[in-house]
Fold this protein.
Amino acid sequence: MKIGVISDLHIDNNCNEQVSISDFSRIVADEIGEQQVDLLLVAGDVSNNHEMTHQFIAKVKQLSNREILFVPGNHDYWLKGQEEKDTNKVLEYFKAQEESIIEKPFIINDNWAIVGHSAWYDYTFADKRFSIEELSEGSFNGRVWQDKLNTDWKLDDRTLSKKFAAAIQADLNKVKDKNIILMTHMVTYKNFGVKMPHPVFDYFNAFIGTSDCNQLLQDYQIKYNIMGHVHHRQREEENGITHICACLGNRNEWQTTDTVTEIKNTMQIIVI
Ligand SMILES: [Fe+2]
């Protein structure tokens, strides 16, 4: 069985005069067909709007006629410009979609299952010189981490990270007799954080990853650990776990200007 992995498509940021938002679903569906992928995993940050994100996932599923599984990223939760924000309601919206695997692990077969959640950052990836109080501000050198403006979970980030890690553990328990693929949006493998020292990411790495899943990766002997968010394209094996980050990222981070080529170069394949 061939499983495709992709993340951080940012279809609203990446559309332009040549490539419309709806072109993205067609390009991804074409790539699924070309690679003969049986199942596609999307690790979040499709767009800055939950309805647009859901429409994209549904469209790719319809066009490709394949199973698509999804966890939302921080951008998919944004309620941009809305005065009354309750991000928990957006989480409920996503959980109600059939493609979401939050709180409902996907059983592939007798041997394999997929567990997924957005997860959240817990500040442990930042340089130690910053205090929790400084990191909680979410701003550094005049730059503001945009989740601070566009989400409101009614909880602090570190508590949210622990809450989501507990939800992941509950799901892992449901399939603990199987080989597990874990998919989060946030980075759960510290090597994939932005390399430090770095002029801004010594601070902003706080919002890239979490250490709350470290023990779970070991305890449940996760085979593949998929994530997004950091806009890298990496694959690394350590202690029997294959860590995968398959982010399209923003157009200004691409190596070419061609959307089809970039999506082709981004999608990673797992064969089980
Ligand atoms: Fe993200």
